[in-house]
Amino acid sequence: MRGLPSDERGVEPLAMKIFAGIVLLMIGLGIGYTVYMWAGKGAQQMLSFMVSVSSDNVTIKIPEDGESTKNLSVTVTRLGPYDETVSLDAEGEPTGVKVSFSPASGTPDFGSTMTITVNNSATPGTTTITIKATGA
Fold first, then answer.
1. CA 30, CA 24: separation in Å to the nearest integer?
2. In the prediction, which pLDDT does 14 show?
3. With contact defined as beta carbons under 8 Å apart, do 117 and 69 qualify?
4. Beta partners for 70?
5. Phi/psi at 98 (nearest 5 deg)?
6. Is 32 left (phi over 0), alpha (psi -120 to 50) or beta?
7. Regions of the chain short of the pLDDT cut 50
8. Long-range contacts of 122-128 (CB under 8 A, 24+ apart)
9. What is the predicted pLDDT for the residue at 70?
10. Three-state secondary structure along the chain?
11. In the sheet that 86-91 helps form, which strands lie side by side, from edge to edge?
12. How far is CA 41 from each of CA 6, 44, 45, 48, rounded to the nearest angstrom?
């Protein structure tokens, strides 16, 4: 087997490394651009409005009969030039607990009353209820 002359050693591997690096760079830029554009759109939509609640910790006693209710104020505030309808909903309500909003939607800036209703089938304990605000 004949070896390469001393002045040509490493030329081919170096050229292959440079080529592989360019290909990887192009793939990386393609993926990065797509992810950046997707993340940019998500961030822009997420920063269009803000939701705040009058209290983040509420205690409601389970009634022996009927229902117990607690009202909280929810405010949806515009952060930019957003003029679409925002709908309010709740997630994570356990058995015996119901959450409603009045009004359930509006165009920012607007306020809503969140009513938490607990009946006697509710289980004692601590739960987290997530308020979900969805823009059109």
1. 10
2. 47
3. yes
4. 116
5. -130, 140
6. alpha
7. 10-46
8. 122/62, 122/94, 122/95, 122/96, 122/97, 123/94, 123/95, 123/96, 124/62, 125/94, 127/92, 127/93, 127/94, 127/97, 128/92
9. 93
10. CCCCCCCCCCHHHHHHHHHHHHHHHHHHHHHHHHHHHHHHHHHHHHCCEEEEECCCCCCCCCCCCCEEEEEEEEEEEECCCCCCCEEEEEECCCCCEEEEEECCEECCCEEEEEEEEEECCCCCCCCCCEEEEEEC
11. 105-106, 86-91, 130-135
12. 55, 5, 6, 11
Residue 62 near residue 120, CB atoms below 8 Å = yes
103 upstream amide cis, omega within 30 of 0: yes
pLDDT value for 21: 41
Two structure tokens written together for 12: 């081919």
Structure tokens at 37: 């554009």
Please identify which residue in the block is written with the tokens 């308020």.
Answer: 131
